[in-house]
Amino acid sequence: MNTIVNVNMNKKNLSRLVLFFAITFIFSWMAWGVGAGKNAVLHVIGTFGPTLTALILTLCYEGSTGLQSILSRLLRWRLGCRWYIFVFGSTIIIPVLAILIHVWQGGIIVQTNNPNHWYLIIPAFFQILFFSVLGEEIGWRGYALPRMQKYFGPFLASVLLGLVWGVWHLPLFLIEGNFHQQIPFSLFMLQSIALSILLMRLYNRTSESLLIVHLFHAASNTFLGVFPIMPENTGGSLTPLWIAVGLLWILVCGLILLKK
């Protein structure tokens, strides 16, 4: 009897997970398709597809208790300084090292930000956090990851989620003027999978803190935009970005081997 109950529960959870992905993709892709990249409001609305879907499904199937549970993970901040140092340190060191390696190999950096304007990093970080990352991570890591880990284990779940996460961005590569068009989709997918693994490690090692996940995602996006590493700042060269993604994978492999 217990076996039958467990099988039924697994099927139910799997169906809800599939439903989450289906609604998320339909909602986001429709918003981005209608906006065609020119409507900033629709772009933000599309970005919130994962979070809105996760919250609605949680409320429908688990009620206010489930909703309170997932939202409470946003407030888990008593984690120890090392996690915050890792979040901001790694996201700064990787692009800086990538730039230094690129220049050491004879590459050039065409455009750099005015040092007098670096105070703008703070508002840029919070803009990305509240108008981009907040729309994703409650869905990806707060809703999908815990359910996927039950079926596939942490590592495979994070790899599969990274693939889904990367494909979810696909319409942005088709919108003229969007910065995603500067990046080969294959490179973006490698970055998404690596980040997904790191985010899984952070989530699992910090008692499922969605706060630390949001901070890492926002910091990563912020510093990739601040430092001259994107093609628009390197004369069209993708080398610094390839180096950065390579360093990201070295970090992933190091954490896996050290089991930290």
Short summary:
Helix 3 (49-72) packs across helix 6, helix 7 packs across helix 8 (185-205) and helix 8 packs antiparallel against helix 9 (210-226). The protein has helices at 2-35, 40-47, 49-72, 81-104, 121-131, 137-152, 154-168, 185-205, 210-226, 239-258. The protein has ten helices and no strands.
Topology:
Layout: H1 2-35, H2 40-47, H3 49-72, H4 81-104, H5 121-131, H6 137-152, H7 154-168, H8 185-205, H9 210-226, H10 239-258
Order of SSEs: HHHHHHHHHH
Number of continuous helical runs: 10
In terms of DSSP E residues, the strand content is: under 5%
Q: How many beta-strand runs?
A: 0
Can you describe what's shown?
- This protein has one domain.
- Helices cover 73% and strands 0% of the residues.
- The chain is built from ten helices and no strands.
- The protein is globular, with a radius of gyration of 19 Å.
- It starts with a helix and ends with a helix.
- Mean pLDDT is 90; it is low at 1-8.
